C-alpha cells in the first residue's frame, strides 16, 4: 500500500523496528527520501530501502535516489533487485534513460553482477559517454576474467576525445590482462605520468607476478619512493604466486623490521607462501611459520577464521606436530564450520583417525557439515584399511541431501578405491547421472590402482569430455601396473597427436616405468635422454626400480647419483643400490652403501603394516616389535610357515640384505610386517569387518617378492581373499593367485 503524501506528519524511519511492516517516510521532500535510503543502505538494510522507495510517491524519486539504489545493488551483487528497479524506473521515470549519471550506475550494476551483455547494450546506446562509462565496463569485463575484451575496450577508450583514463581504469584493465598487454599498459602509464600512482604501481606489480615475471615486479617495487601497505602486500603475494616462499618471507621480515604494520591480507599471503613453494627448508619454514603465528596471536588476527585456517594449512604442509593444531583449535574463539573443516583438512592425510575423531566431535557440537566438510572427511576415509568409515559417511551424505553432488560422488569413488573396494567405486560411478572430468579420472585411476588396466582402457573411449593431463597419467599408470607396453606406447604417442596434450614429467615417468619393468631398460634410458625437460626424482626413481628388478648395476649407479643430488635426505637411492648389490651376492659393496647412508645421516623409512580388527587399527613393524601379543603371533606364524612349506612355499633368501647364514636369512623374511599382520587377522577372525572372509592389510612400502609368494599360497591354504595395499597398488590374493599376475 502506498504511503499517503497528504499526511501532516510521518513516523521517522529511525524509530521503525518491525520487520513485518513497511517503513514510512519522515518527510515529503525528494531529499528526505534520498537521505532515508542512504541511511538504510549504510546500515546494510537494502531490502528495507527498496521497500521504502517502492512505497513512496513517484514525485519523491530523484536521479540521485535511483543512482544510490543501483550502486547498492551493484555492491551486494543483487541482480534481481537491480533488474526490478530498472524496470520500475522505465515505467515511472523514462527520461532517466538518457541521463549520463544514472546510466553509468546502471552499467556499473550490470557489470558487477556479471550481466555484461546488457551492460554493453546500455553502453552502446548512450548518446554521450565519459570516463566513468568506459571504466565501469572495462572493470566489469576484467572482474569476470575476460581480459581480452577489457583490454580492447580500454584501447577504444584511448581513441575517444576528452576521455583520459584515470587510475581506476588502469588498475581495472591491469587486473586481468596478460604480460604483453601489461607491458604496453606500463609504457602508457609512464607516458601519461601516472608512474607515481601507488594504486597503478601496485596493479603493475600484481600483473607481473601473475605473469611469473616476478623479477620485473621486484624491480618496480624497489623503484617506489614510498611504499604503502598494499605495495608490501602486492609484492609478498607476487612471490607467493611465483612459489618463491623464502622471497615472500624476506619481504615480510623487511617490512616488519621497518615498523610497517600488517593486516589480514598480509598474513594470508605469508602463510600461503609457505605452502608448495620451491626451496623452502622445512625446519626453517616451520620456525618462521610459528613466529608469524605468534605475531598473529599478539595482534589478535589469529582469532579470524581465515587466518587460523591459513596457518593450519601451512603448518601441516611443513610437517608440524598435529597435537599443536588441536591446541590452536581450542584457543580460537570462533570455531565455525570453516575452521572445523580446516582442522580436519590438516589431519586428513597425516592422521586420518584423528581427522575422523574431530568430525564426530563436530557433529556432537551441533554443527552441520557442508559439502566441503564431507569431501574432506571422505579424503580421510581413503586412509583407512577398510571401507566401513566411507560407508558411514556415504549414508550421512545421502541423509544431508547431497547424494547427487558430483564433488562428493567423486570423493566416494576415490575413498572406496583406496579402501580396497573397486566394486563400490564402480557402483557410485555408474549411478551418477552426469560425470565431470574428475569423475572419469577418478574411475580410471581406481582401475589402475587395482591392476585392472583392461577395464580402464575400455572406459577411456566412453569419455564424453575432453581428457586432461591427469587422464593420461591414470591410463599410463594402469598400463605400467599390468605390463601393457604396446598399449602404453600407443597412448603416449596419441596424447599430442590426437588430443593436443604435451606430455609432462609425470607422463615420462610412467613411460620409463612401463619400459623398464618390461626389461626394455635401454629404451627407457634413451627416452630420458630425449625428454624436452630435465628429469625429476620420480623419473630417476622409476629407472632405478627397473634396474633393481633386472640387475642393471651400472645404470642404477647413474640413477642413484642423480637422486642423491636432487633429494640428499631420501633413503631410496641408498636402499635400492644396497639391495642390488645384496641380490648379486656383493655384500661388501652393499655394506659400504649402508655405511655411506649412515654417515650422511639418512634414515630408511621402516616397513610398517596395518590391519583393522574390530574398531581398532593395529600397527606392525618387522618382527612385531612393540605389539603386546608378539610371542603368540610369532608362534602362530611359525606354524603357518611350516604348513605353507609343505605345499610349495620356498623363502626367497636372496632378498635378505646381509651376508649371514641361510637360517638367519629365513628368520629375517619370516618376520616381515605384513606376515605378522596376516597371522594376527587369522587369530582374530571373528572380529574382522565383513565376517573374516576378506583380510585387508595396508603397507607403507612396496611388498617384497617373498611376502608376495607367501600371501598367494596363504590365500589358497586359508581359503580367504587377502587384499594388500602397498605404496604402489593393490594386490588381491585369492585361490593362490594374485590379481597382478606376478607383475609389479
TrEMBL record:
<dbReference type="Pfam" id="PF01535">
    <property type="entry name" value="PPR"/>
</dbReference>
<dbReference type="InterPro" id="IPR032867">
    <property type="entry name" value="DYW_dom"/>
</dbReference>
<dbReference type="Pfam" id="PF14432">
    <property type="entry name" value="DYW_deaminase"/>
</dbReference>
<dbReference type="Pfam" id="PF13041">
    <property type="entry name" value="PPR_2"/>
</dbReference>
<dbReference type="InterPro" id="IPR046960">
    <property type="entry name" value="PPR_At4g14850-like_plant"/>
</dbReference>
<keyword id="KW-0677">Repeat</keyword>
<dbReference type="GO" id="GO:0009451">
    <property type="term" value="P:RNA modification"/>
</dbReference>
<feature type="repeat" description="PPR">
    <location>
        <begin position="130"/>
        <end position="165"/>
    </location>
</feature>
<comment type="similarity">
    <text>Belongs to the PPR family. PCMP-H subfamily.</text>
</comment>
<feature type="repeat" description="PPR">
    <location>
        <begin position="436"/>
        <end position="466"/>
    </location>
</feature>
<feature type="repeat" description="PPR">
    <location>
        <begin position="468"/>
        <end position="503"/>
    </location>
</feature>
<protein>
    <recommendedName>
        <fullName>DYW domain-containing protein</fullName>
    </recommendedName>
</protein>
<dbReference type="InterPro" id="IPR046848">
    <property type="entry name" value="E_motif"/>
</dbReference>
<dbReference type="Pfam" id="PF20431">
    <property type="entry name" value="E_motif"/>
</dbReference>
<dbReference type="InterPro" id="IPR002885">
    <property type="entry name" value="PPR_rpt"/>
</dbReference>
<dbReference type="GO" id="GO:0003723">
    <property type="term" value="F:RNA binding"/>
</dbReference>
<dbReference type="GO" id="GO:0008270">
    <property type="term" value="F:zinc ion binding"/>
</dbReference>
<feature type="domain" description="DYW">
    <location>
        <begin position="648"/>
        <end position="744"/>
    </location>
</feature>
<dbReference type="InterPro" id="IPR011990">
    <property type="entry name" value="TPR-like_helical_dom_sf"/>
</dbReference>
Amino acid at each position: 500500500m502506498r504511503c499517503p503524501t497528504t499526511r501532516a506528519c510521518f513516523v521517522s524511519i529511525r524509530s521503525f523496528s518491525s520487520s513485518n511492516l513497511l517503513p514510512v517516510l519522515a518527510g515529503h521532500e525528494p531529499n528526505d527520501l534520498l537521505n532515508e535510503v542512504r541511511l538504510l543502505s549504510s546500515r546494510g538494510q537494502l531490502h528495507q530501502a527498496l521497500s521504502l522507495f517502492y512505497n513512496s510517491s513517484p514525485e519523491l524519486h530523484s536521479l540521485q535516489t535511483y543512482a544510490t539504489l543501483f550502486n547498492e545493488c551493484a555492491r551486494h551483487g543483487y541482480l534481481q533487485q537491480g533488474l526490478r528497479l530498472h524496470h520500475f524506473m522505465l515505467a515511472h521515470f523514462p527520461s532517466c534513460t538518457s541521463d549520463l549519471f544514472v546510466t553509468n550506475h546502471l552499467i556499473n550494476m550490470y557489470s558487477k553482477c556479471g550481466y555484461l551483455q546488457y551492460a554493453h547494450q546500455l553502453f552502446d546506446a548512450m548518446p554521450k559517454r565519459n570516463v566513468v562509462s568506459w571504466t565501469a565496463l572495462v572493470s566489469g569485463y576484467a572482474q569476470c576474467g575476460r581480459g581480452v575484451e577489457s583490454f580492447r575496450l580500454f584501447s577504444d577508450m584511448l581513441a575517444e576525445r576528452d576521455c583520459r583514463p584515470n587510475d581506476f581504469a588502469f588498475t581495472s584493465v591491469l587486473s586481468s590482462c596478460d604480460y604483453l598487454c601489461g607491458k604496453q599498459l606500463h609504457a602508457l602509464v609512464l607516458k601519461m605520468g601516472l608512474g607515481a600512482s601507488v594504486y597503478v604501481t601496485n596493479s603493475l606489480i600484481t600483473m607481473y607476478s601473475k605473469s611469473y615475471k616476478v623479477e620485473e615486479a621486484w624491480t618496480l617495487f624497489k623503484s617506489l619512493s614510498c611504499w604503502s601497505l598494499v605495495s608490501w602486500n602486492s609484492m609478498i603475494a607476487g612471490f607467493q604466486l611465483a612459489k618463491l616462499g623464502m622471497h615472500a618471507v624476506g619481504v615480510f621480515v623487511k617490512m616488519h623490521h621497518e615498523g610497517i604494520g600488517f593486516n589480514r591480507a598480509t598474513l594470508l599471503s605469508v602463510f600461503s607462501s609457505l605452502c608448495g613453494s620451491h626451496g623452502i627448508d622445512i625446519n626453517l619454514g616451520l620456525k618462521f611459520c610459528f613466529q608469524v603465528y605468534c605475531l598473529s596471536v599478539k595482534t589478535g588476527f589469529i582469532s579470524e577464521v581465515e587466518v587460523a585456517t591459513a596457518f593450519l594449512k601451512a603448518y601441516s604442509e611443513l610437517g608440524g606436530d598435529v597435537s599443536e593444531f588441536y591446541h590452536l583449535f581450542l584457543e580460537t574463539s570462533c570455531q565455525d564450520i570453516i575452521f572445523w573443516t580446516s582442522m580436519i583438512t590438516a589431519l586428513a592425510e597425516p592422521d586420518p583417525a584423528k581427522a575422523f575423531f574431530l568430525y564426530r566431535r563436530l557433529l556432537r557440537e551441533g554443527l552441520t557439515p557442508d559439502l566441503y566438510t564431507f569431501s574432506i572427511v571422505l579424503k580421510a576415509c581413503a586412509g583407512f584399511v577398510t571401507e566401513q568409515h566411507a560407508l558411514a559417511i556415504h549414508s550421512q551424505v545421502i541423509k544431508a541431501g547431497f547424494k547427487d553432488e558430483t564433488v562428493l560422488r567423486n570423493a566416494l569413488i576415490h575413498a572406496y578405491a583406496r579402501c580396497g573396494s573397486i566394486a563400490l567405486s564402480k557402483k557410485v560411478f555408474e549411478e551418477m547421472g552426469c560425470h565431470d572430468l574428475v569423475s572419469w579420472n577418478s574411475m580410471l585411476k581406481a582401475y589402475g590402482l587395482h591392476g585392472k588396466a583392461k577395464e580402464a582402457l575400455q572406459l577411456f573411449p566412453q569419455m564424453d569430455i575432453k581428457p586432461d593431463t591427469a587422464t593420461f597419467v591414470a591410463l599410463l599408470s594402469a598400463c605400467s601396473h599390468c605390463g601393457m607396453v604396446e598399449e602404453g606406447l600407443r597412448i603416449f604417442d596419441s596424447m599430442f597427436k590426437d588430443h593436443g596434450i604435451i606430455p609432462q614429467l609425470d607422463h615420462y615417468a610412467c613411460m620409463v616405468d612401463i619400459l623398464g619393468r618390461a626389461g626394455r631398460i635401454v629404451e627407457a634410458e634413451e627416452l630420458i635422454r630425449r625428454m624436452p625437460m630435465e628429469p625429476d626424482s620420480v623419473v630417476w626413481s622409476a629407472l632405478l626400480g627397473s634396474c633393481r628388478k633386472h640387475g642393471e648395476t651400472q645404470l642404477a649407479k647413474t640413477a642413484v647419483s642423480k637422486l642423491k643430488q636432487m633429494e640428499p635426505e631420501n633413503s631410496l637411492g641408498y636402499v635400492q643400490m644396497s639391495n642390488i648389490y645384496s641380490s648379486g651376492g656383493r655384500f661388501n659393496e652393499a655394506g659400504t652403501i649402508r655405511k655411506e647412508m649412515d654417515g650422511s645421516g639418512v634414515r630408511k623409512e621402516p616397513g610398517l603394516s596395518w590391519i583393522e580388527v574390530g574398531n581398532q587399527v593395529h600397527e606392525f613393524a618387522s618382527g612385531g616389535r612393540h605389539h603386546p601379543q608378539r610371542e603368540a603371533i610369532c608362534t602362530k606364524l611359525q606354524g603357518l610357515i611350516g604348513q605353507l612349506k609343505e605345499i610349495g612355499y620356498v623363502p626367497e633368501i636372496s632378498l635378505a640384505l646381509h651376508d649371514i647364514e641361510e637360517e638367519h636369512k629365513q628368520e629375517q623374511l619370516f618376520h616381515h610386517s605384513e606376515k605378522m599382520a596376516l597371522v594376527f587377522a587369522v587369530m582374530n577372525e571373528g572380529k574382522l569387518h565383513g565376517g573374516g572372509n576378506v583380510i585387508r592389510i595396508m603397507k607403507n612400502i612396496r611388498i617384497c617378492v617373498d611376502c608376495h609368494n607367501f600371501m598367494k599360497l596363504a590365500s589358497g591354504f586359508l581359503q580367504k581373499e587377502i587384499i594388500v595395499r602397498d605404496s604402489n597398488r593393490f594386490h588381491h590374493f585369492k585361490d593362490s593367485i594374485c590379481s597382478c599376475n606376478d607383475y609389479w
